[in-house]
């Protein structure tokens, strides 16, 4: 079996996910993992599927005909992750301002943490009349990385940021 990673990006429309799922099924593939979202009228997703080696090319050709942009990638074999890697849940909450994602991602990177998954949201803060930024991150690190150092680094970004880090078992 081959593992494919499908990237779906385009204008949101009814039936886009069903069209991809139909093609995966028609070619004997199995939809394994996905993250899909609609933002501001655009649809984006990443989907992991497995399919028999002999059916990779026909599935790629079929997906190319779906209205909307579908890109198929064959991931490299093996993982860059070590079995000793640890995962941490990182929550960031604060007054919205430009640069928070850049600052947070740089702080993670400089301390040996990568981002496995991240969601962000900006919403109105009714009590203060401003806007609030919130991020939920699953960060992954080598066993030697220090989560306390990461927390200190994130808290230094700005006085208004609140940071919570917890190991994920």
TrEMBL record:
<dbReference type="GO" id="GO:0006355">
    <property type="term" value="P:regulation of DNA-templated transcription"/>
</dbReference>
<protein>
    <submittedName>
        <fullName>Amino acid-binding ACT protein</fullName>
    </submittedName>
</protein>
<dbReference type="InterPro" id="IPR045865">
    <property type="entry name" value="ACT-like_dom_sf"/>
</dbReference>
<feature type="domain" description="ACT">
    <location>
        <begin position="89"/>
        <end position="169"/>
    </location>
</feature>
<dbReference type="Pfam" id="PF13740">
    <property type="entry name" value="ACT_6"/>
</dbReference>
<dbReference type="InterPro" id="IPR050990">
    <property type="entry name" value="UPF0237/GcvR_regulator"/>
</dbReference>
<dbReference type="InterPro" id="IPR016867">
    <property type="entry name" value="GcvR"/>
</dbReference>
<dbReference type="InterPro" id="IPR002912">
    <property type="entry name" value="ACT_dom"/>
</dbReference>
